[in-house]
Amino acid sequence: MTVCGYPIARTSTIASPLKLHRPSINCRNQFYVRASASNTSSSDGEETKLMIKREEDGGWKIDFSGEKKPATPLLDTINYPAHMKNLSTQDLEQLAAELRADIVYTVSKIGGHLSSSLGVVELSVALHHVFNTPEDKIIWDVGHQAYPHKILTGRRSRMHTIRQTSGLAGFPKRDESVHDAFGAGHSSTSISAGLGMAVGRDLLGKSNHVISVIGDGAMTAGQAYEALNNSGYLDTNLIVVLNDNKQVSLPTATLDGPATPVGALSSALAKLQASTKFRKLREAAKQCLEAAEMLKSRDIAMTVADARFCKPLDTDLIRRLAKEHEFLITVEEGSIGGFGSHVSQFLGLNGLLDGNLKWRAMVLPDRYIDHGAPKDQMEEAGLTSKHISATVLSLLGKPKEAMQFK
Asked: Looking at the domain assignment, is residue 265 inside a domain?
C-alpha cells in the first residue's frame, strides 16, 4: 500500500509533488495547447470578462466581483483528461485558476458545494494530469468535492444542472460517467472501496492504479482507520491521498491545539433548529401549513403542531392532540422507524389508540429516490400538501374529493 499525504495550497505548483512519482501513462491523441486570455465571448455566445491574471510573484489573481462569465480560454479546450496530458506546469497552473473561476461562477448562479470543491482544484488537475481515468480509479471522499473532477471529465456543459431534477448529481455517480469509480456522498468510505477495487484488479491480473482521496474530516471516522489496517495487511498497491486543505465541514483536532468542541457546535445547531425562522424553512412543515390552507377552503379545520425533534417526545403535546382531535397524522422527511414510529408506540402503550382516534403516518417510501429539486422529490415521495390533504379527506370518508389532490 502506498500512502501519499501532499497538502496542496491554492497557489502552489501543482505538478511537483506528484510528478516525481508519475506512473507510465498510455494516452491517445496527446497534443500541446497554449491559450490566450483575451477571449471576450464563450463557446455558447455568452459575453465573458477577463477575471484571471498572473501576478508578478507567479500566483494567479482571480476577480470574483463581476456578474459576467469569466474568460477561460485554456479550460475551454479541455473536454476530457486526455486533453491535458501534455500541458506544462505553467499551463496547469492557468488551468487550475480558470477552473476555480468557473466553479465560483457556476455555484453563484445555482448554489451547491463551493468551499469543498475549491479546496481540491489543484489536486484534481494534478490527479487527472498524472493518472489515466477511467482505467485508473479515483475515489473522492467526501463526494461533494468532485465538482472540478466533473468539469474535467466531460460534464462542464451540464454543470448548470447540478443538483437539479434530471441534472448532474452533487456527488460522483457511476451511471453518470465512466470516470466516476464510486458513488457516495458521505463519508470515510473511500479507502475501503479503493481496497476492494485494488484486490479485484489483482485477481484479474490488471495493473491500473486505484487512488482514494480522503479529506482530513473524513479521516476522523473509525471506518477509515479500519480500512488502513486491512490495506496494510493485504499489502496491495493502493494510493491514498490525505487531502488536508482545511476545507472540512467540521473542525478537527490538531497538534497545535484542540478544535472547536463538538458539544458547543451541537448546542448552537440545536438552538438554530429550534428557532422560529428555521422551522418555517423546513419542507415538511411548509407542506403541512399549505395543506391546512387548502382544507380551510373546504371548511375543514386542521391543527399543525411542529414537534421539532424526534426524542425526547413531547408527550404532553401528543396526549393533548390525541384527546382533542379525531385524526392524528404524523408527517416527516424520514424513513419508517422514525418520529411516527415513536409516536405510535407512545399512543399504543398509553391506550390512546383504543378509542376513536385514527392515526396515520406519512414517511419517505422504502425505495430509492434519485436526486433532484426538493419540490420534485417531495412529490415523488408523496409528502406534498396535496398528498397530506388527500390523506385527511380519505380519513373523513371523502375518497372522491381525495382523488382530486392525487
From this structure: no
Q: Where does a domain end: 236, 259, 282?
A: 259
> Domain count of the chain?
2
Task: Report yes or no: 177 and 159 within 8 Å, Cβ to Cβ.
Answer: no
Query: Which pLDDT score is estimated for 52?
Result: 67
Identify the three-state secondary structure at position 33.
Answer: coil
Instruction: Check residues 345 and 24 and name the one with the higher pLDDT.
Output: 345
**Which segment, 124-138, 220-234, 244-258, 390-404, is predicted with the most confidence on average?**
124-138
**DSSP symbol at 152:** I
For residue 286, how many other CB atoms are within 10 A of its CB?
15
Residue at 364 is within a domain: yes
Distances (CA, A) of 206 to 107, 138, 195, 200, 312: 39, 16, 14, 9, 54
pLDDT digits (tens, 9 = 90+) for 124-165: 999 999 999 999 999 998 888 899 999 999 999 999 998 888
Would you state the pLDDT for residue 4? Answer: 39
Q: Say if residue 85's pLDDT is above 80.
A: yes
Q: Are residues 364 and 216 in the same domain?
A: no
Cis peptide upstream of residue 241 (ω within 30 degrees of 0): no
CATH assignment of the domain containing 233:
3.40.50.970
Task: Give yes or no: residues 335 and 198 share one domain.
Answer: no
Question: In the predicted model, what is the mean pLDDT of the chain?
Answer: 79
- CATH code of 370's domain: 3.40.50.920
Quote the CA–CA distance of 88 and 275 in Å, as a whole number: 53
Task: Give tens-digit pLDDT for 6-53.
Answer: 333 333 323 333 333 444 444 333 333 333 334 444 545 555 555 666
CB within 8 A of 215, min separation 6: which ones?
116, 119, 141, 142, 145, 242, 243, 244, 245, 247, 248
Within this chain, do residues 222 and 280 fall inside the same structural domain, yes or no? Answer: no
Alpha carbon distance 355, 326 (integer Å): 10
* Residue-number span of the structural domain to which 297 is assigned: 270-403
Q: Output the nine-digit C-alpha cell for 324.
A: 382533542
Closest Cα partner for 63 from 95, 14, 100? Answer: 100
